[in-house]
Amino acid sequence: MCLYPRHRHSLHCILPPHLSREIVRNGSKEQRERVLRTQAVDNTLRAMRLARSGLARMGAQFQPGPIMVAGQKLRTIFDMKNSQEFPGLMARSEGQANSSDVCINEAYEGLGATYDMYQEVFSRNSIDGQGMPLHAHVHYGHDYDNAFWDGERMVLGDGDGDIFNRFTIAVDVIGHELAHGVTEHEGPLTYFVQAGALNESLSDVFGSLVKQHLLKQKADEADWLIGQGLFTKNVEGQALRSMKAPGTAYDDNVLGKDPQPARMRDYVHTWDDNGGVHINSGIPNRAFYLVATQLGGYAWERAGHIWYETLRDPRLKPNATFLSFARLTVLSAARLFGSGSDEEKVVRDAWSQVDIRVSRERVGEPLWGPGVQPPPQQSGQQPPAQ
């Protein structure tokens, strides 16, 4: 019997449910109405996606997509013109000049920054590794306070101008949502309890790497915020989440206080939000921040490679726990940089700092079992220089 819902095709939204609940609890009449409309749309889209995935399992045939070209960006931006009927009007395609619409340009640049990071750092051809065209749909709905990845496209609302700015404003939000596509193709991680929090954390990690890679920031220069710029000046807060200091991103009369824990001792046990996937992701987020900053340099050079290879590890199970994921990151560090290397020690120490201890005995177990082949890189081999 399956103990975990599969959620391979979940609708992944950037706005955590606990924020919506706080707005309903503390906001004005207009603010409550807006967030309830957004929630109604999200729930409908989830139901539609679940129905589509059911048809796919029953063998429904779909029309083939565009021809994919290896190593080439294929971006298309659609203007929804405040409608909810896809696809909207094609507003900009690959190679076309800037639009007069800032949202169209930000979405185009965000897709490009995401593609470039995966291609240049990990030699990955788009989010599926096979040249998948990237589509974004902007100006979705009226006062829509969210952005989401639905397995096929990136969808971004304009915000309400009261609590939230336009959702194209933050490149790491776009990188975060598209990273859910990477996890779906490599994993997936079940979108429930600790596996779901790892799913969310991986999207924060790679979303942050997209931003840092675009800005050419070293780990000690980055702000390590997710969604910086999304809040209007009416909000007492700097972003949706802080990877550096989970629990400190905002403290506002309407939104409440950031509930993310930074250590396992403060893990939040809840059935809300699929077992707290947007809340408890703060724990692995901080572990990655600690690894990246302690190793120094650009975060994608070593820390990013360790996390990426862990995501690709065939031993990563759909119902992975924080501890099992941590063990795999230590093994990845040993394989990429050598057993006993500084990288391996830093990774183990970072997890210890968030109350997750990886014993040396478990790390010393054989890396590969019968019938399981390792990824291409060999023990001790450095990742390609970037």
UniProtKB/TrEMBL annotation:
Described function? Extracellular zinc metalloprotease.
In Gene Ontology terms, what is a biological process of this protein?
proteolysis
- What are the alphabetically sorted keywords of the record? Hydrolase, Metal-binding, Metalloprotease, Protease, Secreted, Zinc
**Enzyme Commission number(s):** 3.4.24.-
Region called Disordered, residue ranges:
365-386
Write out the annotated subcellular location: Secreted
- Is-annotated flag, keyword Protease? yes
Name the residues annotated as catalytic in the UniProt entry. Answer: 177, 278
Gene3D superfamilies in alphabetical order = 3.10.170.10, Neutral Protease Domain 2 (1.10.390.10)
Q: Hey, which family's this protein in?
A: Belongs to the peptidase M4 family.
Identify the residues that the record assigns to the Peptidase M4 domain, covering every copy.
101-184
Q: Which SUPFAM superfamilies match?
A: Metalloproteases ('zincins'), catalytic domain (SSF55486)
> What GO cellular component entries does it have?
extracellular region
The identity of this protein, by name, is Neutral metalloproteinase
